[in-house]
UniProtKB/TrEMBL annotation:
Coiled coil: none annotated. Residues 23-55 are annotated as: Disordered. It comes from Cristinia sonorae. The lineage of its organism: Eukaryota, Fungi, Dikarya, Basidiomycota, Agaricomycotina. This is Sphingolipid delta(4)-desaturase. It comes from the Eukaryota. It is a multi-pass membrane protein.
Length: 386
């Protein structure tokens, strides 16, 4: 009898197949949050993919991060993917336009109180969207995808940083490259929550706090987990930002700078675009999948960062060509669960007991993995001798 066959037992509604009783997994559980882009014949679109994760700890895996192996498989199946790599000239013009927009609005609002409805509305709707766009412009530039040269890319990142109000582009570059090279490695990938965050924020109120102040966690956590040695670009980033902020305040008063910093706060808080921070690498629906894409319309405002599996597989493919990458290799991407909505990711993260600070994949760093492997090999050798 195969797993899909059921014995004919009169008057019995029970399932005695190999997977009989699996319906109990879904009792009292939230509905599935992710979707499979390519409809699967055996997928009802509702049932979770596996049992819920233990909320007392992170999901520790011994496997390598998934992107290197998929990259090699795609390169073998579609060697023409290399033609999609390279810089995107349009990026610098978008950065120039958004920086001009933000500085103009900041100056125009200098006569309004920061507590006025107009000021707050502009800071959330326009400023939050624009500065989030600049966050992701810096992310794109970090991969040297705006110019052919490294110097020009770094300089553009410093320029894109100006309306954000606080210097961070130089520090972000190193942390983000480590996130790609060492995804999930404890103590190396600073995108991962710490044990302290797990202990303090693993409840509804804690998750509300985390989602509201995400930008502060991403800004401050790296300093405590893995401090950087400052380089000349760090100092230039700081110098350029201080000069810009001083000129703005000295010429137009403090309110334009308040607008820019408020815009940055809203951009990384309870903002529709900020859902991608949680959507990208939190574990959902009983899966051991650690990277999720989103293919919805908000990508237009966010440099297609929703194509996140595609981006991690090929960081040298610019934002304008990520849809083409997915279209080139649908057999690799259309069967991977993805998020249908960034705003709902925030809502579901807060209210769903099956996802929280704990829902991240972690790995030991390379030295610890090697030591564990040696210990396992030695134990195996000792057992064989006995």
């Amino acid at each position: 009898m195969t797993g899909s066959q059921k014995p004919a037992i009169a008057g019995s509604g029970a399932d005695f197949s190999y997977y009989g009783g699996a319906e109990s997994f879904s009792e009292g559980r939230s509905p599935r949050r992710t979707v499979i882009p390519s409809k699967q014949l055996k997928d009802d679109g509702k049932a979770p993919f596996g049992p819920p994760q233990d909320p007392s700890d992170f999901l520790w895996l011994m496997t390598e991060e998934p992107h290197r192996s998929r990259r090699m498989a795609i390169l073998k199946a579609h060697p023409e993917v290399t033609k999609l790599m390279g810089h995107e000239p349009i990026t610098k013009y978008i950065v120039l336009g958004v920086v001009f927009l933000q500085v103009t609005i900041a100056i125009l609002l200098r006569h309004y109180s920061p507590l006025s409805p107009l000021f707050i509305l502009c800071a959330y709707v326009i400023g939050g969207t624009a500065n989030h766009n600049l966050f992701l412009a810096i992310h794109e530039i970090t991969h040297n995808l705006a110019f052919k040269g490294i110097f020009a890319n770094k300089a553009l990142a410093v320029f894109a940083n100006l309306p954000i109000g606080i210097p961070y582009s130089a520090a972000f570059k190193r942390y983000h490259i480590e996130h790609h090279k060492h995804q999930g490695e404890d103590g190396v990938d600073t995108d991962l929550p710490t044990r302290l965050e797990l202990l303090c924020l693993n409840n509804v109120l804690g998750k509300v706090f985390f989602a509201t102040f995400q930008i502060l966690f991403y800004a401050l956590r790296p300093t405590f987990v893995r401090a950087q040695t400052l380089t000349s670009w760090h100092y230039f980033n700081i110098f350029a930002q201080v000069v810009f902020d001083y000129f703005l305040v000295n010429t137009f008063g403090i309110r334009p700078l308040i607008y820019l910093i408020a815009s940055s706060f809203f951009a990384g808080s309870l903002h529709p675009l900020a859902g991608h921070f949680i959507a990208e690498h939190y574990v959902w629906d009983g899966l051991e999948q650690e990277t999720y894409s989103y293919y919805g319309p908000l990508n237009i405002l966010a440099y297609n960062v929703g194509y996140h599996n595609e981006h991690h597989d090929f960081p040298s493919v610019p934002w304008t060509r990520l849809p083409a990458l997915r279209a080139l290799a649908p057999e690799f991407y259309d069967n991977i669960p993805s998020h249908p909505s960034w705003p709902m990711v925030i809502v579901n993260f807060i209210r769903d007991k099956e996802v929280g600070i704990f829902a991240r994949v972690k790995r030991l760093d390379k030295a610890a993995r090697d030591a564990a492997a040696r210990h396992a090999e030695e134990s195996k050798s000792d057992q064989s001798e006995d």
